[in-house]
Amino acid sequence: MTSYQQEKTFNKVYQQWIQPLYRYAYYQTKDKQSAEDLVQEAFTKYWHKMSDIGEGKEKSYLYKSIKNIWLNKIEHQKVVMKFETATKRLSQVHSPEYLLEMKEFKAKLNLAISNLPEGQREVFLMNRIEGLKYREIAERLKISQKAVEKRMSQALLHLRKIHRKI
Fold this sequence. Notes:
elongated; 0% strand; 166 residues; Rna Polymerase Sigma Factor, Chain: A; mainly alpha; Arc Repressor Mutant, subunit A
């Protein structure tokens, strides 16, 4: 299809469906601006996919596009609202003093972990951070599972002592 034919076809479809599509979009959104945006976006998608849409299928394509675009916008709004709610809840639950204390505690804990002997630190991080089981750690380090258990036990004992001081 030449660009002239494409433009002519588009204008014909646009003139035929602009008003019904706007009414449909307004019924969905209950907002004039949102309805106009949906229709414009649907026609933009139609322009780009015109050659793939069979003649006589424009109506269903445009209505379906408006419905899908609207549902995607609603889904996006849900995600945004969920994030805002979670953020608001966190800021209400945790005062600035609490957040500062947590930051200081994490720094002290990281320092304590970094001061563990090499073998204990390695086993502790593999288990607690990477989520590996003792058997998997033993295989990776080529040591017995009992050795892993012993190192982990010593690491936890050391961290408990440090925790009481923090």
